[in-house]
Amino acid sequence: MAKKKPTVALIYDFDGTLSPGNMQEFDFLKAIGIKNKNAFWKENNELIKRHDASNILCYMKLMLDKAHAAKVSVKRQKFIDFGESIELYNGVEEWFDLINQLGKEEGVTIQHYINSSGLKEMIEGTTIAKKFQEIYACSFMYEDDVAVWPAVAVDFTAKTQFLFMINKGISNISENAKVNEFKAEDERPVPFKHMIYFGDGETDIPCMKLIKQQGGNSIAVYKPKNQKKKKCAEKLVQENRVNFACPADYSKGSDIYNIVYAIIKQVKADFDFNKLQKDNQKKFAAK
C-alpha cells in the first residue's frame, strides 16, 4: 500500500555531535579518580597498540578495569546515572520537539536515531534518551546486573550496518542477519534519500559518505569556535564526503536548523511530485 506521507530519519552520532566531549569524561572519570581525561585515552591507545586490538573494545575493557580498581559499581543503573552528567550542545534539548513540529507542519513523519560508538547505558541516562526511535551504541553484557563483558562494540563498520537496519525497519541488533535479506526498495520503511546523518569524527565518515551517495544528506558538525574541528569538517565538504558542515548549534534559526528544515521541505516536495506522476501514469496505463 502506498504511503500517505514520507518518513525522514535523523541519525546522530553522540560524542562530539550532540555533546561537546566524550561521555566518559564527565562523572565517570571523576568517580574512578582520573582528573586528566587525556591520561585515560593515552592508556587506551597503549592498550590498542600493545594488543593490536579494537579501540572500542579496549575502552570498554579499560572502563571496567578502572572501575573495579577504584571499587566503583559497574551495575547497569550506575552507568545510566553517569549519563545524567553528560553536557549537551546549545539547543539539543529543545531540538527534537522543534523538528517534530516541523515535520507535522510539512506532512512528514520524523524519526530520530542514535548511531554511536559511545555507551548506550550512559546515553539512556541523558535528558534526551526518550526522543529516539532506537539507540544503536556500545553496551555491556550483564550478569546479576553487573557488567562483565562487551555485548555490542560499535565501530565504523557496525555504524553502516545500523543504517541498513533503519532502512529495512530492523530494530533488534540480534536480528542483524536480516540486513542481508532481500527487501524491495518500495517496501523499505526509510529510503536512504530520506536520511539525514549528523557526525563529527572518523567513525562517521563511512556513514556520511554512504548516505550522501544514496541521495540522502550528511552534516559534519564541529565544536563552535574550534578552528581545528572546523577545518576538518570543511575538508569533508571539499572532498565531497558530506553535503554540509556546520557549528554544533541546534537552536531554532541556527545553520543546522535551517538546513534540516530545507531538507524536510525538499523530501516532501519530491514525495508529492513522485506521487502525482505515478497517479497520472495509472490513468493512462495499458488496459
Would you mind describing this structure in some detail?
The protein is α/β, with parallel strands linked by helices. Helix content is 44%, strand content 17%. It has ten helices and seven strands. The chain has helices at residues 27-31, 37-51, 55-69, 76-83, 92-106, 120-123, 156-168, 205-213, 227-238, 255-283; strands spanning 7-12, 109-119, 134-143, 146-152, 195-199, 217-222, 244-247. It has a seven-stranded mixed beta sheet, sandwiched between helices. Helix 6 (120-123) links the parallel strand 2 (109-119) and strand 3. Helix 2 (37-51) packs across helix 3 (55-69). The protein is globular.
Q: Main sheet?
A: 7 strands, mixed
Strand order of the largest sheet: 4-3-2-1-5-6-7
Query: What is the H/E string?
Result: EHHHHHEHEEHEHEHEH
Count of helical stretches: 10
Please supply descriptive tags for the structure shown above.
7-stranded mixed sheet, 44% helix, alpha/beta
Helix-strand layout with pairing:
Elements: E1 7-12, H1 27-31, H2 37-51, H3 55-69, H4 76-83, H5 92-106, E2 109-119, H6 120-123, E3 134-143, E4 146-152, H7 156-168, E5 195-199, H8 205-213, E6 217-222, H9 227-238, E7 244-247, H10 255-283
